[in-house]
Amino acid sequence: MFETELTRTLNIRYPIFQAPMAGGPTTPDLVAAVSNAGALGNLGAGYLTPEQLRSTIHKIRELTDKPFGVNLFVPEQPEDSEEAVLQMMDHLSKYHVRYGIAQTPPSFESQEHFEEQVQVLREEKVPVFSFTFGIPAQEVIQAMKQQGTVVIGTATTVEEARQLDMAGVNAIVAQGYEAGGHRGTFLNNVSGSLIGTMALVPQIVDHVSVPVIASGGIMDGRGLLASLALGAGAVQMGTAFLASPESGAHEAYKQKLLSSNEDSTEITCAYSGKAARGIRTKFMNDMGQYSGTIPAYPVQNTLTREIRQAAAKANDPEYMSLWAGQGLRLVSEQSAETIVKQTIEQAISIHKSF
Ligand SMILES: Cc1cc2nc3c(=O)[nH]c(=O)nc-3n(C[C@H](O)[C@H](O)[C@H](O)COP(=O)(O)O)c2cc1C
């Protein structure tokens, strides 16, 4: 049931992707559990060093022989003035004091190792390579495809999807406004690229030649069936898996996910300098006063890293980033396998009822 061109290409049973979620949630346990359940587990590897990336891929392979994906961030060159960075460091100093963190100047040496990460993915011949925040060079896309890796890009508008299609990707994630985590927007500004999943998916489907994966606010079989009806070849679900036992999300974050509602999230640049949807926190509210002067990603991400880590250590979710989509009331603590199974069973039962 629900076999699509994409499930055949990827050799998976169900048209469900567990979203790659960088920063810890997508543990090898989660990725493997989802793949073993017949869907596609995806590792969010944007922040991993090449060594961490290789060893994590090995761990996933110890836990599953099914296909899985690895997701990277296409790097960007921020252009913030030194003055803006120093000013932000000054604004953030109160949080350093709060957690007793030493005020050492952060190192901005390349935190991203995109080329080396790509090299690892090529050597490891991962089944699926997905990316967000832009389009990698042609050599990267072609080299991956030539070795048999399925290449998937992320779009938040039809024009972005068209450019990905022209660049030769095998499939496109259509990331709607509801989605948790960072916006993949790379052409126009984010505020002009906030299209709801219901509107975005069929319009992208109509304008590209490759399968589309619907993403943003999809939490169960209802969302899966609706997405297939809109023309998607699969769905990508992030928030739905965040509170599962296999997810590496912090315990305080999981509790927040389970107690939050559809109106609990906001899109903010406060944590990383790039627009992302997360559960509203004191940190987001405090930083509202500096909006417009927040250094771009990845600079702000580096500037807030120690604060987020200290908050996590102190079990203080108000200063952690709590990325989540708008489907929050539907979050469950079920195992990853159960989430996949229930999603499919619900979609089948609704389909039968028509
Ligand atoms: C905690 C979290 C981290 C995320 N990290 C990534 C990432 O590393 N790469 C990526 O392409 N998308 C990332 N996303 C976005 C997802 O791919 C997807 O668009 C989103 O989860 C879909 O919306 P949903 O959370 O409502 O299911 C992240 C989402 C969340 C919630």
Could you walk me through the main structural features you see in this protein, from its secondary elements to its overall organization?
This protein is α/β, with parallel strands linked by helices and 354 residues long. The chain has a domain of 213 residues: Alpha-Beta Barrel (TIM Barrel). It contains 14 helices and eleven strands. The strands form two sheets. The protein has an eight-stranded parallel sheet. Strands 7-11-10 form a three-stranded antiparallel sheet, with no helix packed on it. The mean pLDDT is 96. The site of flavin mononucleotide has 28 residues, from strand 9 and helix 10.
Distance between the termini: 15 Å
Ranges where pLDDT stays below 50 over 5 or more residues in a row are none
Order of helices and strands: HEHEHEHHEHEHEEHEHEHHEEHHH
CATH class of the domain at 5-75 and 112-242 and 343-353: Alpha Beta
* Overall pLDDT: 96
According to DSSP, the number of beta strands is 11
Oligomer: single chain
CATH architecture type of the domain at 5-75 and 112-242 and 343-353 = Alpha-Beta Barrel
Beta strand %: 5-15%
| Annotated CATH topology of the domain at 5-75 and 112-242 and 343-353 | TIM Barrel
| Tally of individual helices | 14
Q: What integer value in Å does the Rg equal?
A: 19 Å
List keywords for this structure.
three-stranded antiparallel beta sheet; 354 residues; flavoprotein; binds flavin mononucleotide; oxidoreductase; alpha/beta; detoxification; 13% strand; NMO; TIM Barrel
